[in-house]
Automatic annotation (TrEMBL):
FAD binds at D36, Q44, Y49, I89, F124, D290, T331. This is Ferredoxin--NADP reductase. Belongs to the ferredoxin--NADP reductase type 2 family. The lineage of its organism: Bacteria, Pseudomonadati, Pseudomonadota, Alphaproteobacteria, Hyphomicrobiales. It catalyses: 2 reduced [2Fe-2S]-[ferredoxin] + NADP(+) + H(+) = 2 oxidized [2Fe-2S]-[ferredoxin] + NADPH. Keywords: FAD, Flavoprotein, NADP, Oxidoreductase. The keyword NADP applies.
Length: 343
Protein backbone atom coordinates (compact mmCIF):
# COMPACT_ATOMS: atom_id res chain seq x y z
CA UNK A 1 0.00 0.00 0.00
CA UNK A 2 1.24 3.53 -0.80
CA UNK A 3 2.53 5.30 2.27
CA UNK A 4 0.84 8.61 2.99
CA UNK A 5 3.26 11.54 2.81
CA UNK A 6 2.56 14.06 5.57
CA UNK A 7 3.50 17.69 5.18
CA UNK A 8 2.46 21.11 6.45
CA UNK A 9 1.58 22.37 2.99
CA UNK A 10 1.17 20.77 -0.40
CA UNK A 11 1.93 23.10 -3.30
CA UNK A 12 0.34 22.16 -6.63
CA UNK A 13 2.61 23.47 -9.40
CA UNK A 14 6.37 24.02 -9.54
CA UNK A 15 6.20 27.20 -11.61
CA UNK A 16 7.93 30.39 -10.44
CA UNK A 17 5.05 31.23 -8.11
CA UNK A 18 4.94 27.78 -6.50
CA UNK A 19 8.72 27.96 -6.01
CA UNK A 20 8.65 31.36 -4.33
CA UNK A 21 5.78 30.16 -2.11
CA UNK A 22 8.24 27.60 -0.68
CA UNK A 23 10.45 30.53 0.36
CA UNK A 24 7.71 32.60 1.98
CA UNK A 25 6.36 29.55 3.83
CA UNK A 26 9.87 28.47 4.84
CA UNK A 27 10.57 31.82 6.50
CA UNK A 28 7.57 31.08 8.73
CA UNK A 29 8.81 27.53 9.58
CA UNK A 30 6.28 25.89 7.28
CA UNK A 31 7.50 22.92 5.23
CA UNK A 32 6.22 22.11 1.78
CA UNK A 33 6.09 19.35 -0.81
CA UNK A 34 5.64 20.45 -4.43
CA UNK A 35 3.94 18.41 -7.17
CA UNK A 36 3.99 19.08 -10.92
CA UNK A 37 2.66 17.35 -14.03
CA UNK A 38 5.78 18.27 -15.97
CA UNK A 39 9.02 16.32 -15.68
CA UNK A 40 10.89 19.50 -14.86
CA UNK A 41 10.72 22.35 -12.38
CA UNK A 42 9.87 25.89 -13.50
CA UNK A 43 6.37 25.93 -15.05
CA UNK A 44 5.92 28.16 -18.10
CA UNK A 45 9.38 29.75 -17.64
CA UNK A 46 11.15 26.41 -18.05
CA UNK A 47 8.72 24.77 -20.45
CA UNK A 48 7.79 27.56 -22.83
CA UNK A 49 10.57 30.14 -22.78
CA UNK A 50 13.70 28.92 -20.94
CA UNK A 51 16.07 30.99 -23.07
CA UNK A 52 13.95 34.09 -23.53
CA UNK A 53 14.80 37.19 -21.54
CA UNK A 54 12.36 38.52 -18.93
CA UNK A 55 12.75 42.22 -18.14
CA UNK A 56 10.21 42.86 -15.38
CA UNK A 57 11.41 40.81 -12.44
CA UNK A 58 12.24 43.32 -9.68
CA UNK A 59 15.99 43.55 -9.12
CA UNK A 60 16.88 41.68 -12.32
CA UNK A 61 17.17 44.05 -15.29
CA UNK A 62 17.22 40.91 -17.42
CA UNK A 63 16.98 37.21 -16.63
CA UNK A 64 16.04 34.26 -18.83
CA UNK A 65 13.13 32.00 -17.98
CA UNK A 66 15.50 29.21 -16.91
CA UNK A 67 17.80 31.70 -15.15
CA UNK A 68 14.91 32.84 -12.97
CA UNK A 69 13.99 29.24 -12.13
CA UNK A 70 17.62 28.42 -11.24
CA UNK A 71 17.80 31.45 -8.94
CA UNK A 72 14.50 30.58 -7.27
CA UNK A 73 15.76 27.04 -6.68
CA UNK A 74 18.90 28.42 -5.06
CA UNK A 75 16.86 30.81 -2.93
CA UNK A 76 14.63 28.01 -1.56
CA UNK A 77 17.48 25.56 -0.92
CA UNK A 78 17.55 26.31 2.84
CA UNK A 79 13.98 25.05 3.14
CA UNK A 80 14.63 21.67 1.43
CA UNK A 81 11.34 21.38 -0.46
CA UNK A 82 10.51 17.91 -1.72
CA UNK A 83 9.54 17.78 -5.41
CA UNK A 84 7.32 15.13 -6.98
CA UNK A 85 7.45 15.52 -10.75
CA UNK A 86 5.56 13.91 -13.65
CA UNK A 87 2.39 13.49 -11.62
CA UNK A 88 -0.88 15.33 -11.72
CA UNK A 89 -2.89 16.20 -8.65
CA UNK A 90 -6.31 14.72 -9.28
CA UNK A 91 -8.18 14.94 -6.01
CA UNK A 92 -8.21 17.26 -3.01
CA UNK A 93 -10.48 16.07 -0.17
CA UNK A 94 -11.07 17.71 3.19
CA UNK A 95 -10.56 15.19 5.99
CA UNK A 96 -10.10 17.56 8.95
CA UNK A 97 -10.29 21.17 10.01
CA UNK A 98 -8.19 21.94 8.16
CA UNK A 99 -6.55 18.76 6.91
CA UNK A 100 -6.57 17.55 3.34
CA UNK A 101 -5.95 14.27 1.56
CA UNK A 102 -4.49 14.96 -1.85
CA UNK A 103 -3.95 12.25 -4.47
CA UNK A 104 -2.06 12.12 -7.75
CA UNK A 105 -2.58 10.13 -10.93
CA UNK A 106 0.57 8.19 -9.99
CA UNK A 107 -1.10 6.94 -6.82
CA UNK A 108 0.75 9.19 -4.32
CA UNK A 109 -1.24 10.21 -1.28
CA UNK A 110 -0.41 13.37 0.68
CA UNK A 111 -1.86 14.67 3.91
CA UNK A 112 -1.46 18.42 4.32
CA UNK A 113 -2.86 21.04 6.67
CA UNK A 114 -3.11 23.52 3.82
CA UNK A 115 -3.11 23.23 0.03
CA UNK A 116 -1.67 25.94 -2.19
CA UNK A 117 -2.80 25.81 -5.81
CA UNK A 118 -0.08 27.42 -7.96
CA UNK A 119 -1.20 25.59 -11.08
CA UNK A 120 -0.77 28.45 -13.57
CA UNK A 121 -3.03 27.94 -16.56
CA UNK A 122 -3.72 24.41 -15.41
CA UNK A 123 -2.39 21.81 -17.76
CA UNK A 124 -1.34 23.79 -20.81
CA UNK A 125 -1.20 22.27 -24.28
CA UNK A 126 -0.03 23.86 -27.53
CA UNK A 127 -2.72 24.29 -30.17
CA UNK A 128 -1.67 22.17 -33.14
CA UNK A 129 -2.19 23.15 -36.77
CA UNK A 130 -4.52 20.82 -38.72
CA UNK A 131 -1.91 19.41 -41.13
CA UNK A 132 -2.19 15.81 -42.30
CA UNK A 133 0.67 13.64 -41.04
CA UNK A 134 2.18 16.30 -38.73
CA UNK A 135 2.34 13.83 -35.82
CA UNK A 136 5.12 11.88 -37.60
CA UNK A 137 7.39 14.95 -37.39
CA UNK A 138 6.52 16.10 -33.86
CA UNK A 139 9.42 15.94 -31.44
CA UNK A 140 11.90 15.51 -34.29
CA UNK A 141 11.53 18.38 -36.74
CA UNK A 142 8.28 20.00 -35.61
CA UNK A 143 8.11 21.47 -32.13
CA UNK A 144 5.81 23.80 -30.25
CA UNK A 145 8.41 25.31 -27.92
CA UNK A 146 12.14 25.98 -28.13
CA UNK A 147 13.96 24.20 -25.33
CA UNK A 148 17.50 24.97 -26.51
CA UNK A 149 18.26 27.40 -29.29
CA UNK A 150 21.50 25.51 -30.03
CA UNK A 151 19.53 22.56 -31.42
CA UNK A 152 18.41 24.89 -34.23
CA UNK A 153 21.86 26.21 -35.09
CA UNK A 154 22.50 26.26 -38.84
CA UNK A 155 19.06 24.83 -39.60
CA UNK A 156 16.41 26.26 -41.92
CA UNK A 157 13.59 27.13 -39.56
CA UNK A 158 10.01 27.86 -40.54
CA UNK A 159 8.14 29.78 -37.84
CA UNK A 160 4.38 29.81 -38.29
CA UNK A 161 2.11 32.33 -36.57
CA UNK A 162 1.54 36.03 -36.01
CA UNK A 163 1.51 36.41 -32.23
CA UNK A 164 4.17 37.23 -29.67
CA UNK A 165 5.75 33.78 -29.55
CA UNK A 166 6.14 33.59 -33.35
CA UNK A 167 7.65 37.07 -33.54
CA UNK A 168 9.87 36.67 -30.47
CA UNK A 169 11.33 33.43 -31.77
CA UNK A 170 11.83 34.92 -35.21
CA UNK A 171 13.88 37.69 -33.62
CA UNK A 172 15.78 35.37 -31.28
CA UNK A 173 16.54 32.60 -33.76
CA UNK A 174 17.60 34.54 -36.83
CA UNK A 175 21.14 34.90 -35.43
CA UNK A 176 21.44 31.16 -34.72
CA UNK A 177 19.58 29.45 -37.56
CA UNK A 178 20.92 29.20 -41.12
CA UNK A 179 17.72 30.85 -42.33
CA UNK A 180 14.49 31.84 -40.61
CA UNK A 181 11.24 32.10 -42.55
CA UNK A 182 8.23 33.61 -40.82
CA UNK A 183 4.93 32.46 -42.27
CA UNK A 184 1.60 34.03 -41.35
CA UNK A 185 -1.83 33.92 -42.92
CA UNK A 186 -1.77 37.60 -43.83
CA UNK A 187 0.31 40.73 -43.34
CA UNK A 188 -1.32 41.68 -40.03
CA UNK A 189 0.34 40.67 -36.75
CA UNK A 190 -1.07 40.40 -33.21
CA UNK A 191 2.40 40.59 -31.65
CA UNK A 192 3.81 43.64 -29.82
CA UNK A 193 4.29 46.50 -32.34
CA UNK A 194 7.96 46.83 -31.38
CA UNK A 195 8.63 43.16 -32.28
CA UNK A 196 6.77 43.58 -35.57
CA UNK A 197 8.93 46.63 -36.40
CA UNK A 198 12.12 44.69 -35.61
CA UNK A 199 10.95 41.77 -37.74
CA UNK A 200 10.18 44.08 -40.70
CA UNK A 201 13.63 45.66 -40.38
CA UNK A 202 15.25 42.20 -40.62
CA UNK A 203 13.14 41.38 -43.69
CA UNK A 204 14.13 44.69 -45.30
CA UNK A 205 17.82 43.91 -44.58
CA UNK A 206 17.43 40.50 -46.27
CA UNK A 207 18.24 38.64 -43.03
CA UNK A 208 14.97 36.70 -42.76
CA UNK A 209 12.10 35.80 -45.10
CA UNK A 210 8.46 36.72 -44.57
CA UNK A 211 5.82 34.66 -46.41
CA UNK A 212 2.04 34.52 -46.34
CA UNK A 213 -0.34 31.59 -46.46
CA UNK A 214 -1.05 28.40 -44.55
CA UNK A 215 0.91 25.18 -44.35
CA UNK A 216 -1.18 22.51 -46.08
CA UNK A 217 1.36 19.70 -46.33
CA UNK A 218 4.75 18.49 -45.14
CA UNK A 219 7.47 16.60 -46.97
CA UNK A 220 10.25 14.59 -45.41
CA UNK A 221 11.36 11.15 -44.27
CA UNK A 222 11.65 9.41 -40.91
CA UNK A 223 10.26 12.44 -39.11
CA UNK A 224 12.80 14.83 -40.66
CA UNK A 225 11.24 17.65 -42.64
CA UNK A 226 12.60 18.75 -46.00
CA UNK A 227 9.83 21.12 -47.17
CA UNK A 228 6.49 22.63 -46.24
CA UNK A 229 3.75 23.15 -48.81
CA UNK A 230 2.03 26.50 -48.39
CA UNK A 231 -1.23 27.77 -49.88
CA UNK A 232 -1.85 31.51 -50.16
CA UNK A 233 -5.34 33.02 -49.81
CA UNK A 234 -5.23 33.57 -53.61
CA UNK A 235 -5.02 29.80 -54.08
CA UNK A 236 -1.36 29.80 -55.21
CA UNK A 237 0.51 26.81 -53.77
CA UNK A 238 4.28 26.84 -53.25
CA UNK A 239 6.95 24.99 -51.32
CA UNK A 240 9.41 26.26 -48.67
CA UNK A 241 12.55 24.16 -48.04
CA UNK A 242 12.78 23.65 -44.27
CA UNK A 243 14.58 21.50 -41.68
CA UNK A 244 12.49 22.44 -38.69
CA UNK A 245 9.03 23.93 -38.21
CA UNK A 246 7.82 25.84 -35.15
CA UNK A 247 4.05 26.44 -35.23
CA UNK A 248 2.99 29.02 -32.61
CA UNK A 249 -0.80 28.94 -32.57
CA UNK A 250 -1.22 29.67 -28.88
CA UNK A 251 -1.94 27.43 -25.96
CA UNK A 252 -5.09 25.86 -24.71
CA UNK A 253 -5.21 26.35 -21.00
CA UNK A 254 -7.22 23.58 -19.46
CA UNK A 255 -8.14 24.07 -15.86
CA UNK A 256 -8.20 20.28 -15.55
CA UNK A 257 -8.98 18.62 -12.23
CA UNK A 258 -8.87 21.95 -10.31
CA UNK A 259 -12.45 22.56 -11.47
CA UNK A 260 -13.62 19.48 -9.53
CA UNK A 261 -12.45 20.59 -6.10
CA UNK A 262 -15.55 22.56 -5.12
CA UNK A 263 -13.92 25.99 -5.40
CA UNK A 264 -15.75 29.15 -6.50
CA UNK A 265 -14.51 30.02 -9.98
CA UNK A 266 -14.43 33.17 -12.12
CA UNK A 267 -15.92 32.53 -15.58
CA UNK A 268 -15.51 28.81 -14.90
CA UNK A 269 -11.78 29.16 -15.54
CA UNK A 270 -9.92 30.80 -12.68
CA UNK A 271 -10.04 30.35 -8.93
CA UNK A 272 -11.61 33.22 -6.99
CA UNK A 273 -9.54 34.36 -4.00
CA UNK A 274 -9.57 36.92 -1.24
CA UNK A 275 -6.93 39.58 -1.89
CA UNK A 276 -6.12 39.71 1.82
CA UNK A 277 -5.11 36.07 2.22
CA UNK A 278 -5.30 34.49 -1.26
CA UNK A 279 -7.54 31.86 0.26
CA UNK A 280 -10.20 30.33 -1.99
CA UNK A 281 -13.85 29.78 -1.11
CA UNK A 282 -12.66 26.65 0.77
CA UNK A 283 -10.84 27.49 4.02
CA UNK A 284 -7.34 26.03 3.99
CA UNK A 285 -7.09 25.94 0.18
CA UNK A 286 -5.18 28.84 -1.35
CA UNK A 287 -4.61 29.87 -4.98
CA UNK A 288 -1.71 32.04 -6.17
CA UNK A 289 -0.20 32.99 -9.52
CA UNK A 290 -1.83 32.70 -12.94
CA UNK A 291 -4.52 30.30 -11.70
CA UNK A 292 -6.33 32.83 -9.50
CA UNK A 293 -8.59 35.77 -10.17
CA UNK A 294 -9.55 38.90 -8.27
CA UNK A 295 -10.49 42.38 -9.49
CA UNK A 296 -7.41 43.96 -11.05
CA UNK A 297 -5.48 40.68 -11.37
CA UNK A 298 -2.40 40.86 -13.62
CA UNK A 299 -0.90 37.57 -14.79
CA UNK A 300 2.64 38.61 -13.96
CA UNK A 301 5.27 36.68 -12.07
CA UNK A 302 5.77 39.58 -9.65
CA UNK A 303 2.05 39.53 -8.74
CA UNK A 304 2.34 35.83 -7.90
CA UNK A 305 5.31 36.51 -5.60
CA UNK A 306 3.30 39.10 -3.64
CA UNK A 307 0.34 36.72 -3.43
CA UNK A 308 2.62 34.01 -2.01
CA UNK A 309 3.83 36.32 0.77
CA UNK A 310 0.29 37.11 1.93
CA UNK A 311 -0.84 33.51 1.57
CA UNK A 312 1.96 32.37 3.92
CA UNK A 313 0.72 34.71 6.67
CA UNK A 314 -2.71 33.06 6.69
CA UNK A 315 -1.31 29.53 6.33
CA UNK A 316 0.77 30.21 9.48
CA UNK A 317 -2.49 30.60 11.43
CA UNK A 318 -3.55 27.10 10.39
CA UNK A 319 -0.21 25.43 11.06
CA UNK A 320 0.60 27.25 14.31
CA UNK A 321 -2.78 28.42 15.69
CA UNK A 322 -1.26 29.30 19.09
CA UNK A 323 1.81 31.18 17.83
CA UNK A 324 1.79 34.92 17.29
CA UNK A 325 3.33 35.97 14.00
CA UNK A 326 5.69 38.93 14.19
CA UNK A 327 6.54 40.80 11.04
CA UNK A 328 10.30 40.72 10.38
CA UNK A 329 12.75 41.83 7.69
CA UNK A 330 15.37 39.41 6.34
CA UNK A 331 17.95 42.23 6.49
CA UNK A 332 17.66 42.69 10.24
CA UNK A 333 16.13 39.55 11.77
CA UNK A 334 18.73 37.14 13.11
CA UNK A 335 15.98 34.53 13.46
CA UNK A 336 15.18 34.71 9.73
CA UNK A 337 18.88 34.74 8.87
CA UNK A 338 19.42 31.56 10.89
CA UNK A 339 16.63 29.88 8.92
CA UNK A 340 18.31 30.99 5.71
CA UNK A 341 21.61 29.54 6.93
CA UNK A 342 23.47 32.85 6.61
CA UNK A 343 24.09 33.38 10.34
P1 LIG B 1 3.05 28.29 -14.26
O1 LIG B 1 4.35 28.85 -14.62
O2 LIG B 1 2.04 28.07 -15.35
O3 LIG B 1 3.29 26.92 -13.50
C1 LIG B 1 2.18 26.14 -13.11
C2 LIG B 1 2.63 24.69 -13.00
O4 LIG B 1 1.54 23.95 -12.42
C3 LIG B 1 2.92 24.05 -14.34
O5 LIG B 1 4.25 23.56 -14.34
C4 LIG B 1 1.87 22.93 -14.48
O6 LIG B 1 2.41 21.78 -15.10
C5 LIG B 1 1.52 22.66 -13.02
N1 LIG B 1 0.18 22.09 -12.84
C6 LIG B 1 -1.00 22.56 -13.33
N2 LIG B 1 -2.03 21.78 -12.92
C7 LIG B 1 -1.46 20.80 -12.15
C8 LIG B 1 -1.99 19.67 -11.44
N3 LIG B 1 -3.31 19.39 -11.41
N4 LIG B 1 -1.11 18.84 -10.81
C9 LIG B 1 0.23 19.10 -10.81
N5 LIG B 1 0.79 20.16 -11.45
C10 LIG B 1 -0.05 20.99 -12.10
N6 LIG B 1 5.42 37.02 -16.96
C11 LIG B 1 6.10 38.09 -16.50
O7 LIG B 1 5.91 38.52 -15.36
N7 LIG B 1 7.04 38.71 -17.30
C12 LIG B 1 7.32 38.28 -18.57
O8 LIG B 1 8.14 38.88 -19.27
C13 LIG B 1 6.62 37.13 -19.06
N8 LIG B 1 6.87 36.65 -20.30
C14 LIG B 1 6.19 35.54 -20.75
C15 LIG B 1 6.48 35.03 -22.02
C16 LIG B 1 5.82 33.92 -22.49
C17 LIG B 1 6.14 33.37 -23.84
C18 LIG B 1 4.82 33.29 -21.66
C19 LIG B 1 4.08 32.07 -22.14
C20 LIG B 1 4.53 33.79 -20.40
C21 LIG B 1 5.21 34.93 -19.93
N9 LIG B 1 4.94 35.45 -18.67
C22 LIG B 1 5.65 36.54 -18.21
C23 LIG B 1 3.90 34.88 -17.80
C24 LIG B 1 4.55 34.03 -16.69
O9 LIG B 1 5.32 33.00 -17.27
C25 LIG B 1 3.44 33.48 -15.82
O10 LIG B 1 2.76 34.56 -15.21
C26 LIG B 1 4.05 32.58 -14.74
O11 LIG B 1 4.70 31.47 -15.30
C27 LIG B 1 2.95 32.11 -13.79
O12 LIG B 1 3.58 31.32 -12.84
P2 LIG B 1 2.76 30.20 -12.05
O13 LIG B 1 3.76 29.57 -11.15
O14 LIG B 1 1.51 30.80 -11.51
O15 LIG B 1 2.27 29.17 -13.18
Amino acid sequence: MTETIKTDVLIIGAGPVGLFAVFELGLLDIRAHVVDILDKIGGQCAELYPEKPIYDIPGFPVVTGQGLVDNLLKQIEPFSPVFHLSRMIEKVERIGDPLFRVTTDAGDIFEAKAVVIAAGGGSFQPKKPPIDGIAAYEGKSVSYAVRQMETLRDRSVLIVGGGDSALDWTLNLHAVARRVTLLHRRDVFRAAPHSVEQMRALVAAGKIDLCFGQVVGLEGEDGMLTAATVREDSGRVYSIPVDHMLPFFGLTMKLGPVSDWGLDLHNGELVLVSTETFETSQPGIFAIGDINWYPGKLKLILSGFHEGALMAQKVHRYIYPDKRLTFQYTTSSSSLQRKLGVL
